[in-house]
Design brief:
two-stranded antiparallel ribbon; 2 helices; single chain; alpha+beta
């Protein structure tokens, strides 16, 4: 199982997460920071891992069990 968390205070609004895994992440229209749409996605695991690695601020964390 995959669990994701996103730290909006740490996010710089680069948008890599939304670009790589758009069904899991989005960007807030007001400030551009990450919005976590699905903290435990059943699919898109590879895309989520890529988004975590691509996040320039390290705002996204991933736990897998």
């Amino acid at each position: 199982m995959m669990r994701i968390s996103a730290d909006r205070d740490r996010c710089i609004g680069a948008g890599m997460c939304a670009l790589l895994a758009g069904s899991v992440f989005d960007q807030d229209d007001n400030d551009g920071r990450v919005l976590l749409l699905d903290p435990a996605p059943a699919t898109e695991h590879t895309a989520v891992r890529e988004a975590v690695e691509a996040c320039p601020s390290g705002a996204i964390t991933l736990q897998e069990s």
